[in-house]
Structure to design on (904 residues):
């Protein structure tokens, strides 16, 4: 296993970058998504109304 | 509760809006002129108005003057209302406005004059770059100060996009603009070759992301709900949209450099992240369009909603096309062609322009207290603008794909079917005219917009929004600050930092240790972050909910997200650079070649010519051997280019003789009928200031180019000697009249100390690892073929030159400096130039 990995990365040592960043992105993405989807409805509704709160001055 | 009435600063919004419209028209007009020049080269009427100099005027005007001012207007208007506070400082607001306009004016003057760093969308020279940084800080201070004064605890998603914009642009601009000045108007990039390309496209791509996309998305999230009079379709989706977009965008830069000399891993990285980018982009598009869902009936009559609907649709199209173009094989076809230009204009005209128009039509009645002067005209603008985009994009899609296919087409024997480059150019000329028509229609639409806005403003009077807000007790503000800082020390943040730290350390080790470190770091991030982020105690707000209420920690976290991409992507290449220079077979440019290179940069030859041959048979057959990192290792800035309106020049050195270049530069159409290259007769008279040559070499040496102290000391002398030799060679071959070095009279065909002579020296050097002068001197000794040959035998001659080069290196690789000395003895003219002037004419067939 280690051997295989060694061979693999010998060709292109920096190939780990894209792989790792994919993982990293996956983590953040999942976390943010889960959090966004689990957020209480009332909170989301309140936030989304922010732009409409102030009445226009005309 | 005690309340007070505040008035918003809408004066600044009016100013930015009008500036945006004015510069938008100027920028589009410049676009129309360069479009005309490509279809009809006689439109290159003056030296400072040639395509190479005007193209940066167009791009910079549209990006920073039109969209930049539009974004500032949109941000200032919406931020005040979203946080229920007046802009913190009227003084800073005004400095921001006038400073930005001054920068634009400085750009509009300096670019046509040829002051340029030649890095796309970052062409401005260092004094203006510093001014940009200063004004950007003024903007940031004004913005964050306003956030600090806010009366609405929660930061609406639009604000997040604005924060990301401010941070990312600051970082990108500063890193990419790093350069060492030679004089007030000239500097050399601290990065060279591959590095420079990587940094530049990390910047260039993210200029699209953080100047043309994130601020406009913030604007979308505010103005579309306002115009549709209903909240955004899904606030959840907007959260996901924001984080994934900011995080992914910063990585996608290398998709501009697929199949180039950039290391493989960086290319793969760019491609993967570009593909991923599709998801959040479409999330955003769907969110925007579905917000309009309940307002379809109004869409018929309301021009604002129409502009927004089409703008968002083009955002979707452009962000679908972008990932598509990042797929390597698609890039292989599309890169360097007009397809990319079509893609960009789908974004610029479709997304930015339509969103800008929608926002202005929505704002103007509110800023002047009267209804829009002519709704009918706004509707007409909408239709004519949309038609303009379709014509424009349609024409350039066709042009791009046609030319891309022609470049690679093979005949029965496996050779190039269209061996002549001009043939592929002539084939798409009709499309260039159609593009001009489409663009002009679009421009006309904006003239109507300007008229409509001005007429509305005239019929009303400046009106500022007002609001009744509670008075904030002093204590509450400081308590808020402290809570904010505590949030920064939350376990989530530490987990993230440790994880990122582990990964970053991984890059400094050998493969297997690095793998372990990186995996450990990622696991920590994956598991820790996931658990911590979603863990929620009953009744207490989540981490993210707290975060949304806190500007400072939110800002810092966003900055980290943006920073990782930059650091991890750029660092390895930058670190590897000194070793690469030490092991390079390439040698630094001679003083005259360096001067010639600066002329090349100044004239913007890179706007039409690439110097990057990709590993495809059809490219090597047409242009010569594939480019290597070594080829551009001393190139500050790099000149890989992004569009082939003319042929690649990576291996042009030695392909033609000096006479050919001389005649071609004076009038390309005489040598190559059908060429669209501008004529450069003025270069024959413009003088190179050789007094500066020495300091140029010294600056280069400071940056790590291995010039010896002797080479630097004799730079001026060497440059003048080589220039004399080239000019005298031309005189002997074709009997032109020469003005002596430093002579006050211009009554001749060519000055010895002219920019043209220096440029020819550079052109003959491109793609060679040693100056042809040195080569010739040694080739004479070894009896190899001379470097200058007719165009017809380009292939074989390139080989011969290579052979000569190899031979020369074997003989005297260590003694470059001595070889330079022995140049004195070399022949003044290139071998049998005289007999070649008709031979040279045949070069057109190549």
């Amino acid at each position: 296993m280690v051997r295989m990995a060694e061979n693999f990365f010998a060709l292109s040592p920096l190939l780990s970058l894209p792989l790792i960043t994919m993982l990293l992105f996956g983590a953040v993405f999942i976390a943010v998504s889960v959090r966004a989807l689990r957020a209480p409805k009332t909170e989301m509704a309140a936030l989304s109304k922010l732009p409409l709160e102030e009445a226009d001055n005309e | 509760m005690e309340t007070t009435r505040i008035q918003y600063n809408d004066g600044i919004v009016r100013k930015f809006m009008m500036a945006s419209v004015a510069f938008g028209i100027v920028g589009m007009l410049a676009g129309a002129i360069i479009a005309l020049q490509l279809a009809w080269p006689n439109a290159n009427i003056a030296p400072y108005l040639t395509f190479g100099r005007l193209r940066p005027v167009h791009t910079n005007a549209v990006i920073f003057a039109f969209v930049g001012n539009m974004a500032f207007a949109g941000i200032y208007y919406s931020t005040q209302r979203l946080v229920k506070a007046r802009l913190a400082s009227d003084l800073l607001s005004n400095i921001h406005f006038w400073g930005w306009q001054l920068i634009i004016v400085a750009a509009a003057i300096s670019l046509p004059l040829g002051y340029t760093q030649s890095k796309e969308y970052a062409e401005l020279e260092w004094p203006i770059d510093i001014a940009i940084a200063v004004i950007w800080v003024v903007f940031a201070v004004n913005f964050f100060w306003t956030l600090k004064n806010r009366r609405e605890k929660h930061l609406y998603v639009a604000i997040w996009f604005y924060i990301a914009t401010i941070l990312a642009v600051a970082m990108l601009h500063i890193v990419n603009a790093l350069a060492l000045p030679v004089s007030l108007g000239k500097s050399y990039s601290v990065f060279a070759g591959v590095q420079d390309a990587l940094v530049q496209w990390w910047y260039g791509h993210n200029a699209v992301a953080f100047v043309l996309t994130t601020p406009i998305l913030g604007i979308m999230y505010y103005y579309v709900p306002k115009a549709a009079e209903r909240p955004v379709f899904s606030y959840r989706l907007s959260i996901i949209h924001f984080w994934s977009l900011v995080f992914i965008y910063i990585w996608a830069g290398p998709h501009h450099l697929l199949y180039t000399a950039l290391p493989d891993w960086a290319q793969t990285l760019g491609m993967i992240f570009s593909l991923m980018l599709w998801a959040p982009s479409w999330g955003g598009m769907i969110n925007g369009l579905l917000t309009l869902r309940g307002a379809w009936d109004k869409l018929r009559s309301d021009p604002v909603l129409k502009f927004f609907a089409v703008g968002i649709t083009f955002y979707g199209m452009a962000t679908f096309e972008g990932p598509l173009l990042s797929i390597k094989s698609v890039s292989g076809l599309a890169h360097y062609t007009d397809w990319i230009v079509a893609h960009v204009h789908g974004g610029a005209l479709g997304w930015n322009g339509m969103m800008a128009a929608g926002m202005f039509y929505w704002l103007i009645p509110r800023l002047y207290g009267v209804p829009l002067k002519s709704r009918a005209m706004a509707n007409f603008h909408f239709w004519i603008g949309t038609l303009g985009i379709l014509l424009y994009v349609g024409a350039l899609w066709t042009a791009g794909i046609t030319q891309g296919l022609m470049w690679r087409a093979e005949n029965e024997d496996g050779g190039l079917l269209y061996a002549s480059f001009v043939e592929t150019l002539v084939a798409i000329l009709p499309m260039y005219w159609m593009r001009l028509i489409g663009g002009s229609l679009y421009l006309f639409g904006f003239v109507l917009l300007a008229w409509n806005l001005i007429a509305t403003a005239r019929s009303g009077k400046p009106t500022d929004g007002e609001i009744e807000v509670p008075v904030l007790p002093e204590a509450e503000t400081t308590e808020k600050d402290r809570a904010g800082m505590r949030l920064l020390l939350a376990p989530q943040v530490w987990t993230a930092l440790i994880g990122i730290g582990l990964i970053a350390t991984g890059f400094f080790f050998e493969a297997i240790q690095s793998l372990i470190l990186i995996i450990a770091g990622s696991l920590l991030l994956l598991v820790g972050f996931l658990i911590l982020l979603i863990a929620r105690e009953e009744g207490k707000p989540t981490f993210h909910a707290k975060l949304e209420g806190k500007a400072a920690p939110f800002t810092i976290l966003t900055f980290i997200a943006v920073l990782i991409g930059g650091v991890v992507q750029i660092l390895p290449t930058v670190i590897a650079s000194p070793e690469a220079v030490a092991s390079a077979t390439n040698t630094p440019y001679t003083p005259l070649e360096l001067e010639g290179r600066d002329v090349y940069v100044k004239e913007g030859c890179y706007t039409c010519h690439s110097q990057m041959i990709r590993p495809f048979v059809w490219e090597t057959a047409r242009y010569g051997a594939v480019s290597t990192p070594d080829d551009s290792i001393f190139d500050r800035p790099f000149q890989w280019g992004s569009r082939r309106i003319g042929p690649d020049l990576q291996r042009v050195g030695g392909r033609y003789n000096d006479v050919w270049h001389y005649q071609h530069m004076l009038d390309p159409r005489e040598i190559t009928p059908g060429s669209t290259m501008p004529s450069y007769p003025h270069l024959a008279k413009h003088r190179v200031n050789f007094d500066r040559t020495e300091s140029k070499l010294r600056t280069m040496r400071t940056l790590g180019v291995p010039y010896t102290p002797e080479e630097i000391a004799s730079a001026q002398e060497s440059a003048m000697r080589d220039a004399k030799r080239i000019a005298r060679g031309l005189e002997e071959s074709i009997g032109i009249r020469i003005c002596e070095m430093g002579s006050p009279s211009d009554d001749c065909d060519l000055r010895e100390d002219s920019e043209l002579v220096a440029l020819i020296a550079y052109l003959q050097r491109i793609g060679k690892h040693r100056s042809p002068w040195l080569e010739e001197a040694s080739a004479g000794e070894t009896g190899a073929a001379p470097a200058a040959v007719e165009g017809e035998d380009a292939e074989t001659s390139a080989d011969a030159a290579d052979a000569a080069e190899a031979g020369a290196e074997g003989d005297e690789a260590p003694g470059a400096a001595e070889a330079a000395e022995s140049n004195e003895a070399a022949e003044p003219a290139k071998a049998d130039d005289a007999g070649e002037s008709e031979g040279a004419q045949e070069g057109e067939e190549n």
